[in-house]
Amino acid sequence: MHTPPFRLARPNGIEAALGHKQPPCCPPAEPQSLGGRRRTRLAELDSHLHCSVIGTCMTTSELRKLVPRFTTLDRQRATDLEIHHEAVKLSSAGGEGCKAFQKALDERYAHALRRFGAAKDADAVRKLWDEAVSSGDIPPAYWAVMTHPDASTAVRQAAFGEVHMLSHLVGAANRADIRRLVALEEDNATLRDKLERQQERLQEMSTRHETTIGQMTHQLIQLSTRADRQTGPRDTELELQALREALAARDENLALQASRRQAAEQRAMREHEQLQAVRAQLDDALAQLQFSRAESEAMERAMLPAAAPGEERHAGLRQLRGKRIVYVCGRPGSNHTLKSLVESTGGQLVLHDGGIEDRKGLLAATVARADMVVFPVDCIDHDSMSMLKRVCERHQVAYYPLRTASVASFVELTTRVSVSAREEAGAVAVAAGG
C-alpha cells in the first residue's frame, strides 16, 4: 500500500517544553508496558487513525454505553453514525472519554496484547499480524499492532491498508448477498407453510387421542363395574389387562406426537428469528440498490446526447452552467472526469484535497466564493468534514455530502438539487399568483 493520508503519532513534548515537572512525592503514573517497553496510548495515536481503530475494535453496543457518559447524545435516539462520530472526537480530544475507551479495549483484548507482547521487533509484530489476518481475527490484532511499542511505521501502514480494503470487499459482496437473501426468504416461506400444516395435523391427532383416552377410561370403568356383577375374577383381570396395555400404547403414541410437536415449534421459532435477521439484511441491501439505481438513472439522463443540433453535449447537466462548485477530497481519477464534465456545461469545478497537499487555510477563501460545496463522505476524515461544515455555515454556502466519490453520485446530486430548486420556485410562483 502507498503511504496513507495520515501521520503517525509522535511523543507529546508540550509539558516538557513548558517546564512542567511532577513533584518527587507524586511520580506520574506509568502506562501499561511490555517488559519495560511503553505501549502507545489511544490518545497518542494520530487523529486520522482513531476512526479505523474505533470502527474496527469497538462494537456499536459498547459505544452506546460509553459515549453518552461524556456527551449529550441520547443513547436510544442517536444514530450509529452520530455515536461513531462522537467516539472519534472523544478519542482525538483525550480526557476521560478517551481513557474509558483505552480501558475497555485493553480489558477486551488482554489476551491479544499478551500474545503480541512476546514480539521484540517490527518483523515479529508483522508476522503475528499476518497470522491474525489469515485466521480472520482482525479487531484484537489491530489494537495490539497500533499500540505495540515496537510496531514500525511500515507495519502500522500495512495493517491500516488491509483493514481499509476489507470495507471495499464488503461492499463488493452486496450483489451476491441480495441473491442469497432472496433465496433464503423463499426457503423460509416454504418451511413456514410446511410447519403450519404439521401443527394442524398434530393438533388434530392430539384432540383425537384425548377423545380416545376418555372413551377407553369410561369403558374401563363400565367393564370393572360389570365384571364385579356378572363375570368371574379371571375374565375381568384379562380384560382389564388388555385395556391397560391398549391405554399404555395410546399414552406412548401421544407422548411421541407431543415431543414431535414441541420440536417443530422450537424449529419454527428459530426459523422465524433467522427470517427476521434475513429481512433486516435484505432491507439494507435494497436501500443500497436503490441508491445505486438512482445514481445510474441520473448518470444516464445526464449523458444523453443533445436532443437537437446546436445544443450542448450534456444537456442533462445544463443546471451547472455559470455555477462555481467547490469539490473537497475525492479520488484523483474521478476528480479529473468531474472537472471536465462541469466545464463542458459552462460551470467551474474547484478541487481541494482537504489538507493533504493543499493548505486548509485556503479552504475558507475558496468556499466563500462558491455557489455550492460538495464532499464525498467515503474519502474525507471527520476533522476536515466538521471544519468544512463550519466554514460553509459561516459564509452561508450550501453544502452537500455525497455517498461515494464516483461520477454517478455527483451527477445524481446535481440533478436532485436542480429538481428541488425548480419545485421551490414553482411553489413560490403559485403562492404569489394566489
Describe this structure in words.
With 434 residues, the protein is mostly helical. The protein has three domains: 141 residues, no CATH class; 126 residues, Orthogonal Bundle (Helix Hairpins), CATH 1.10.287; 110 residues, Ribokinase (UDP-N-acetylmuramoyl-L-alanine:D-glutamate ligase). The protein contains 15 helices and six strands. The strands form two sheets. It has a four-stranded parallel β-sheet with strand order 4-3-5-6, sandwiched between helices. The chain has a two-stranded antiparallel ribbon with strand order 1-2. A hairpin with a 2-residue loop joins strand 1 and strand 2. Helix 11 packs across helix 15. The chain is elongated, with a radius of gyration of 35 Å. The two termini are 63 Å apart. The N terminus is likely disordered.
